Amino acid sequence: MSTRDRLAALRRGLQRTEPRVDAVLVSEDQNRRYVSGFTGSAGQLLVTADAALLLTDFRYVEQSAWQAPDFEVVKTEGFPWPAVAEQAKRLGVRRLGFESEHLTVDQHTRLTAALRETAPDVALAPLTGCVEESRQVKDAEEIERLRTAVLIADRAMEAVTRRLRPGMTEKAIAWELEVEMRQHGAEALSFPIIVASGPNGAMPHHRPSDRAVREGETITIDMGCKVGGYCSDLTRTVVLGEPDATFWGVYDTVLRAQQTCEGRLRAGMTGKAGDALARDVIAAAGHGEHFGHGTGHGVGLAIHEQPRLTYTAAGEATVPEGAVVTVEPGIYVPGWGGVRIEDMVVVGKDRCHVLTTAHKAPIIKMGEDS
C-alpha cells in the first residue's frame, strides 16, 4: 500500500466511526508515519474527506514536503494546538476525532482551550484504533523491511553467542550485540537489549547488569533492530558448557510450546486461542505459574502493536491474515533462571510462515569459536 492508499483507508474509516466525525487528528508517531510517510518527531495530521494537512514546526517543513507529498504542510509556532484549531475552523470541521489512547491529558487540555478560543463550534470525539487496525495487516514492502531487520538480528545473535565466554558481563554482551547489528545495517535498536544470566533470567525484562556470566547457567538474550522504521524481535536462551539437571526439562517444554503455536496458529483465531496453543503445553508440564506474560504480540513500526496473543482481554480480537506477530513462550523460575525462545511469524490463512532463521541449539561448547 502507498501512503495515498493508507490515507484513503483512513478517510473510509471516518464514515464508520461512532459517533460520526468529519475529521480526525493523528498525533501518535508511528500512526503519523504510516499514513503520511513523514518520519519527523513532531507533527499532527488533520484529515477530512477532502483535505489532508500535516502541521509541523520549522525544523521539519522542508522534510515533510518531500516525505509527505499527499499532504498540505502547515508551519506551526510553539504548541501546535492553536494551529490545529485554526485549520479545523477553516475546513468547517464540526466534530473532530482524536486518538484517545495517545493524546495526553495536558495535550487534550491545551487543544480544548484552543478550540474554545478559535473554533467553539468544534466538538472533540475520542477514537480508538483508527489507524492501528489498518497497521495490523502488513503489505509486501513492510514484510520485506521486517525480514531484513530479522536477518540482521539473527546473524548478530549467532555471531555474538559464538564468542560468549565465562566472565563476560551482561552489559558487555549487550554492547557487542548492538555493535554487530549496527555494523550490518541496523538504523537503531527496536528496544533496549535484554541479557539475563543465571537467576536474573527469572525476570523477563531484566536489564543488563555488571553480573558476569558463568558456566552452566542460562543466558537469555532478547534483542532486535530497526530497518526502514520496522522492528525485529528475537529471543534465544543459551548455556555455556554443560547445563544443570533442570535445564533440559524447562528448555524442551518451552521449545515444544513454541513449535506447537507456530504449527497451528492461523488467521481468524482469537489472540486468546493463539496464546492457549503455547500456554496449554507449559501448563501441562507443571509450569503454568511460571509463564505470566502473553505468548506474542504484533510487530511493525512499533515493537509492540496489535494483534496480541494473550490470555487477557486484549486477546479477544481475531488475528488477521497478513499480521506479523512474535511467538515467545517462556518459563521463569525464581532463584534458578528462565528460558524464553522467540520467533517472528507472518500469519497466513491456513498456517504461519516463520521469518526468524537464528538456530535454537542452546549449548555453547567451551573452547570452540563456531
Quick one: overall form?
Answer: elongated
What's the rounded overall pLDDT mean?
A: 96
pLDDT < 50 stretches: none
Please summarize the sheet with the most strands: 6 strands, mixed
Compute the separation of the termini in Å. Answer: 42 Å
* Topology pattern, helix = H, strand = E: HEHEEHEHEHEHHHEEEEEEHHEEEEEEEE
Structural class: alpha+beta
Rg over CA atoms, rounded to whole Å, is: 23 Å
Strand arrangement within the widest β-sheet reads 4-3-2-1-5-6
Task: Quickly count the helices.
Answer: 10
Can you count the beta strands? 20
Q: Portion of residues in helices? A: 25-40%
Strand residue content: 15-25%
Task: Name the features.
370 residues, alpha+beta
Topology:
Elements: H1 3-14, E1 23-26, H2 29-36, E2 44-48, E3 52-56, H3 61-67, E4 72-75, H4 81-90, E5 95-99, H5 105-118, E6 123-127, H6 132-135, H7 140-162, H8 170-183, E7 188-189, E8 194-197, E9 218-223, E10 225-227, E11 230-231, E12 234-240, H9 247-264, H10 271-284, E13 296-298, E14 305-309, E15 324-327, E16 330-333, E17 337-340, E18 343-347, E19 352-354, E20 363-364
Parallel strand pairs: 1-5, 3-4, 5-6, 12-20
Antiparallel strand pairs: 1-2, 2-3, 7-10, 8-9, 9-12, 10-11, 13-14, 15-18, 16-17, 18-19
Helix pairs in contact: 4-5, 7-8, 9-10
